[in-house]
Amino acid sequence: MTAPRLLDVAAAAGVSRATASRVLAGTPRNVDPELARRVEDAARELGYRTNHSARALRTGTTGTVGVVVPSLANPYFVQLADAIAQQVRAAGGQLVVSDAANSVEIEAEQIETLLGGRVDGLVVVPVSATASGPAVRAAAKRAPVVLFDRWASGSGTVAVTLDNAAAMRLLLDHLDDLGRHRIALVAADQASSSGAERLAAFTAARGEDATTVLLPSFTTDAGRTAGRRIAERRAAIDAVVCGADVLAVGLVSTLQRSAVSVPGQIAVTGFDDTEILELLDPPITSIRHPLAAMAERALTLLQSTARDRAETVERFAPQLVVRASTDAAA
Amino acid sequence: MTAPRLLDVAAAAGVSRATASRVLAGTPRNVDPELARRVEDAARELGYRTNHSARALRTGTTGTVGVVVPSLANPYFVQLADAIAQQVRAAGGQLVVSDAANSVEIEAEQIETLLGGRVDGLVVVPVSATASGPAVRAAAKRAPVVLFDRWASGSGTVAVTLDNAAAMRLLLDHLDDLGRHRIALVAADQASSSGAERLAAFTAARGEDATTVLLPSFTTDAGRTAGRRIAERRAAIDAVVCGADVLAVGLVSTLQRSAVSVPGQIAVTGFDDTEILELLDPPITSIRHPLAAMAERALTLLQSTARDRAETVERFAPQLVVRASTDAAA
DNA sequence: AGAGTGTGGGAAATCGATCTCCCGAGGAGC
DNA sequence: GCTCCTCGGGAGATCGATTTCCCACACTCT
Question: HTH lacI-type domain: from which residue to which, for each copy (chains A, B) (predicted)?
Fold first, then answer.
C-alpha cells in the first residue's frame, strides 16, 4: 500500500517513465494524444501524486515562497500576507509566513531560517529602513528577494511599496475640502520607511511646526497614548491623521472617552484600511493599498531572476476610502 | 560558484560522504571527535547548507507542518497559528498556514493542497463540527492529522481542545460572585464544536429559557447586531457572556453607543483572550486558552504515528482573566 | 528508390543526502 | 599468540522525478 510512483503509472500505461513525466508535468513536448490519455487515466486510477521532494531535488525549485512581516499582531500585515498567499497559490505554490516580532534580530533569524529552508524566493516587509538592510542584502545573495510595503536602505533589492506621499496628500486634501485645516499627525515607528515617509510628507505639506505626535510603535496602545495628548489640545485641532489604522482605533476610543466627538470636534483618519476599522463607531476613513496588484508585481519580480536589479523603489497609487470619521454624511 | 554539496565538505575534510552526513545530520553513530571537528570546520568554511529537497526525498519527511484555520480575519486564529508555529520552529520545522474562509468547501481544498504539497502532518481547526468530518477523515488516510481547538464528528481523528464547559462555568461563577444573576449569552457559529459546546454549557447551567442571542458567525459585526438586541432588553439583563472576543468587542462598542454603561449596567465577558480586547474601554474579561500547551500536545500527537487512535477529544483547562468589563476594580 | 527531415518516445544519467551493508583495525580474553 | 568482538568509517545503493541524449520510424523530395 505504498504510494504509487511515476514508474507505476508508466507501467500501467505501458509507456516509459520519461513519457509519463512529459504528460503529467506538462513538458512542452509533443506526445501522442492516445498515449497521453492512457497516462492520465492510469494516474487517476492509481491515485498518483507527484512527489514534490523528488521534483524539487531534480529541478532545484520548491515552489514555496517565504514572507517575513514585522508583526502578525497587526492585522494589516495579516491582510498583506494573505494577498501574497493568494497570488502564490494562484501560481500553484505555497507560502510560508514568519513574524519578526518587530525586531531586526528576529527578522534576520527568520530570513535565515526561511532561506536555509526550502524557499525559492523571499518577500520581506523590513522592520527598519536602516537596520534591516544588511540581512536583506545577505539574503539576496542566496535567493531572489523582494521588499514589500517598505524599503530598507542598503538592501540592494527592489521594493514594491505604496506611494506614501500621494496617500498623505489624498488625506490632507480630503480634510481641507471638509474645512478642516488645523490638522495634527499621529505617527509611529519612524524607523520604518513607511512611518518616515508619512511623517515627511505631512511635514512637507503642513510645515515644520504643525502638530505631530510621534509614537514608538504601530500598536493600539500607542494610539491610546496619542489620544490623551490630542484630547488635551482639542481646542487647537480639528483633524488627526494617523499613520496606521491600529493607531486610529486606539485614538478614537480614547477621544470618545474624553468626550471629544468624532468627527464633530475632531475628524480622524487611519491608514491601511484594515478590517478593524469597523470595530468602532464611527467607521474610520482610511487609505487602501492596492495589495493584490502589489503582490502580483512582487511575485513577478521574484521570478524574473534579474538579481542585479538596482536598489529601486516602485510606488503604487493609494486609494482614499471615506467613512464617517471624517465625513459624517458618508 | 554553485552551492557546496555534502560531497565537497567530505572532500575538504578528507572523509567520505557517509561520515560527513553522520556528523552534520547528527546520526546517533559514534564518529571520531577529530574527524567530526574536521567535518564541521570544512562545512563552516564552505558555507555548507544541507539541501532539504534531497534530504526529504531520501528520508521521506519534509519537516513541514500545515495548519488550516477557519479564518485569519479572526485574531484568535492568528494567535493560535502563532502558538503552533512556535512549537514547530522549536522542533526545527516550518509551518504553512491556510485560511479556509469559514467555508467547508474551501477548507477541503486547502487540506488537499497542503497534503498534495509537502507536509508531514496537518493541524486542522475544523470549520464545522459535522460537515468538516469527511475531508478530515480522507486526509487522515494520507498523513497524520490532529484537530485543534474544535473537533469534527466523523473525522476519525484526535482533537486537542479547550474544556468549553469548564470555561463557561468559570465565567458564570465569576459573574454570580459579582452579584450578576440575569445573564445572557451571545453565541455564534453553532456549526462549530466550540460554538455548540459553549451554548450547551450555558443552557445547562442557566436553563432553557435564559436569554440567548444566536448569531451566524464569529465577527465583530455580528457582535454589533447582538449589541442592539441586548440594549433593547437592558432592563432584564445585567451581564452578557460572549462566545468570542470579536463578538464582545462589537457588543461593547454598541452598548456604549446606546448609553449602556459597561460594567455599570451590564457586565460583559469575551472568550479567547485575544489582544483586541485592549482596543476598548473597558478592557474585557475573557477566557485564556493554554495555547502553548495545546500546541505542544498537538505536535506530539502528530509525531506519534498512532494513526489508529480513536476519535477522541482531549480537553485542556481554561483560565479566567478578569478585567474591568466585569469588575470595575480590576 | 535513396537521401533527407522531422517527430515521438525510450534508456540512462542526474539531482544530493542518507542508510545499509561490509571491511579493517585495534583491543580483550583465553 | 590466536581468535573473537567491537567500533569506526567507506563504497555503493537508494529515494522518485526530470531531462538529456539518441534511436527508430514515417514521410517527403529529387
Answer: 4-59
Q: Are B183 and B241 in contact (CB under 8 A)?
A: yes
> Average pLDDT, whole number, for chain B?
90
**Which residue did the predictor score with more confidence, A294 or A261?**
A294
Using a CB-CB cut-off of 8 Å, the residues of chain B touching A275 are: 73
Q: How far apart are CA B171 and CA B165, in angstroms?
A: 10
Longest CA–CA separation in chain A, Å: 85
> Which of the four CATH numbers 3.40.50.2300, 3.40.50.1000, 3.30.750.24, 3.40.50.10420 does domain A64-162+291-317 have?
3.40.50.2300
Fold for the domain defined by B6-50: 434 Repressor (Amino-terminal Domain) (1.10.260)
Q: Which residue has the higher pLDDT, B33 or B126?
A: B126
Contacts of B94 in chain A (CB under 8 A): 96, 113-114, 117-118
Domain A164-289 has CATH 3.40.50.2300: yes
The distance in angstroms from the start CA to the end CA of chain B is 63
C-alpha cell at A56: 524539487
- Give me the CA A119–C1' C18 separation in Å, rounded: 22
pLDDT (0 to 100) of residue A82 = 94
Write the CB contacts of B232 (distance below 8 Å, at least 6 apart in sequence).
Answer: none
In angstroms, what separates the C-alpha of B51 from chain A's closest C-alpha?
Answer: 8
**Chain B residues whose C-beta sits inside 8 Å of any chain A C-beta:** 49, 51-54, 56-57, 60, 62, 64, 72-73, 75, 78, 82, 85, 89, 94-97, 99, 113-114, 116-118, 220-221, 249-250, 253-254, 257, 275-276, 278-281
pLDDT band at B224 (very low <50, low <70, confident <90, very high): confident
Cα–Cα distance for residue pair B32/B29, rounded to 1 Å: 10
Residues of A in contact with B53 (CB under 8 A): 53, 56-57, 60, 62, 118
d(CA A229, CA A113): 42
For range A286-292, the mean pLDDT: 97
The per-residue pLDDT for A123 is 97
Give mean pLDDT, residues B137-149: 93
Domain positions in chain B are 6-50, 64-162+291-317, 164-289
Taking the CA of residue B7 and the C1' sugar atom of nucleotide C13, their distance in angstroms comes to: 18
pLDDT for A29 equals 65
> pLDDT value at position A305?
61
